Amino acid sequence: KRIVYGGHVISIARSLSFNGFGNAFRIAAINGGSHVGPCFAGDTVYAWSQVLEKTSIDGWDSLGALRLRTIATKDRACADFPYKGDDGKYDPSVILDLDYTVLLPR
């Protein structure tokens, strides 16, 4: 099988995260992340996002920041928000866990 470069998975997950975050016009920081599992040619990538933190930016009343976690899965829709099980291990379908901060107009 042909493996898909992790940067492509990040790009796809970020593109999918724009559903609801269309105003997020800049990534301010990548706080952390893990390529949890492989993605192969032919896999279908899905993603969901969670708001971890909302912050204001000193001196900018018109600008705010959101810290987000985006989880990407392969061949599994995200309606049930797959992430980690009770044992703390990632669901087998999870391929990316990305923690980042975006800027948004207020």
How would you describe what is shown here?
A four-stranded antiparallel β-sheet has the order 1-4-3-2. The chain has one helix and four strands; from the N terminus they run αββββ. It is 11% helix and 47% strand. Strand 2 and strand 3 (60-74) form a beta hairpin. The chain has a single domain, classed as Hotdog Thioesterase (Thiol Ester Dehydrase, Chain A, Roll). The relative contact order is 0.30. The longest helix is centred in the first third of the chain and has 12 residues, at 6-17. The protein is mainly beta and 106 residues long.
CATH C-level name = Alpha Beta
Secondary structure: number of strands: 4
Instruction: Kindly provide the radius of gyration, computed on alpha-carbon positions and rounded to a whole number of angstroms.
Output: 15 Å
Numbering strands along the chain, what is their spatial order in the largest sheet? 1-4-3-2
The low-pLDDT segments are none
When the domains are counted, the total is 1
Q: Can you tell me the CATH superfamily?
A: Hotdog Thioesterase
The shape is elongated
Helix count from the secondary structure assignment: 1
The helix-and-strand class reads mainly beta
CATH topology: Thiol Ester Dehydrase, Chain A
Q: Which bin fits the share of residues in helices?
A: 10-25%
CATH architecture: Roll
What is the string of SSEs from the N terminus onward? HEEEE
